[in-house]
Design goal:
Layout (H helix, E strand, L loop, with lengths): L15 H5 L9 H18 L3 H6 L3 H6 L5 H4 L7 H22 L1 H24 L15 H14 L4 E3 L6 E3 H17 L5 H27 L1
Antiparallel strand pairs: 1-2
Helix pairs in contact: 2-6, 6-7, 6-8, 7-8, 7-10, 8-9, 8-10, 9-10
Length: 223
C-alpha cells in the first residue's frame, strides 16, 4: 500500500493507525514484487548451479578493488539456503508494508536498496579495520541489511505495535524486538562471534534505516 501523497512530498508523520496495526499485505505492492524477485532468483540460482551467486555476491575484492559496483545491489537478492531466504522474506512480508505505506512505493524501494548497500559498506569498513575477521574475498549475500533497515524504520514509526515471535511464541513490541536485534549484532561484532560478518551487515542496514527515517521525519515537521 502506498501513500496518497505525491511521490515528491516528504513522508507523512505516523498516525494513530500506524501504531495500532501493521498494514495488510498487498499482492500488488513493491513489497510483494521484492519477495517475488528474491524467491525467483533463489530458484534460478539453484537451477543454474549457483552461477548467479558467482556473478552477484558481494566481496570487498570484487566490488571495491575490481569496481564491480553492481554487487552492492545484486548481493541483496541472493541467499545461501532456504531457511536464509525464508527468514528474510518473512521479515519483509510482515514489516515491509509498514514502511512502504510510510514512504510510498518508489521511495520505499530506494530505502530498501540503500539499507542493503549500507550493510555491505559497514561490513567492508569493519573488515578493513580488523574489527571483524573477514578477508577481502569473503562473500556477503542476503537481504538482511535491507530487512534490518525496515525493522529499524518500523521501530521509529510504529514501535508500539506487537508481533508474535516464532520462538519463543510470545508477543513483543516492534521497538523491543529491534533493540534486542541491534544488541545481538553489537555483541557479535565486539566479541568476534562466528556470524560477526553477517551481523555487521545487519547493523549497517539498521543504522542507515534510522538515519533516513529520522531525517525524513524531521524534514516533514519543518515543512
Amino acid at each position: 500500500m502506498v501513500n496518497s501523497t505525491p511521490e515528491n512530498a516528504a513522508p507523512a508523520a505516523p498516525t494513530r493507525e500506524d501504531h495500532d496495526a501493521i498494514p495488510a499485505f498487498r499482492y500488488r505492492s513493491v513489497t510483494a514484487w521484492l519477495i517475488g524477485i528474491n524467491v525467483a532468483i533463489f530458484v534460478l540460482d539453484a537451477l543454474l548451479k549457483h552461477r548467479l551467486y558467482q556473478w552477484g555476491a558481494f566481496t570487498r575484492e570484487s566490488a571495491a578493488m575490481h569496481l564491480q559496483v553492481w554487487r552492492w545491489v545484486t548481493y541483496q537478492f541472493l541467499h545461501a539456503h532456504l531457511l536464509h531466504l525464508g527468514l528474510n522474506m518473512l521479515g519483509l512480508y510482515i514489516f515491509g508494508p509498514v514502511m512502504e505505506k510510510w514512504w510510498g512505493g518508489r521511495r520505499f524501494l530506494g530505502f530498501y536498496l540503500l539499507c542493503g548497500m549500507s550493510g555491505a559498506w559497514l561490513f567492508s569498513v569493519l573488515a578493513y579495520l580488523n574489527v571483524i575477521s573477514a578477508g577481502v574475498g569473503q562473500p556477503l549475500i542476503g537481504a538482511s541489511g535491507s530487512v534490518y533497515g525496515i525493522l529499524m524504520g518500523c521501530a521509529l514509526v510504529a514501535g508500539d505495535v506487537q508481533v508474535l515471535l516464532l520462538f519463543p511464541p510470545m508477543p513483543i513490541k516492534v521497538r523491543t524486538l529491534v533493540i534486542v536485534a541491534v544488541l545481538i549484532a553489537l555483541a557479535s561484532i565486539l566479541l568476534k562471534w562466528r556470524n560477526a560478518g553477517s551481523e555487521a551487515a545487519h547493523l549497517g542496514g539498521a543504522l542507515l534505516g534510522f538515519f533516513l527515517v529520522k531525517r525524513a521525519g524531521a524534514a516533514d515537521k519543518s515543512g
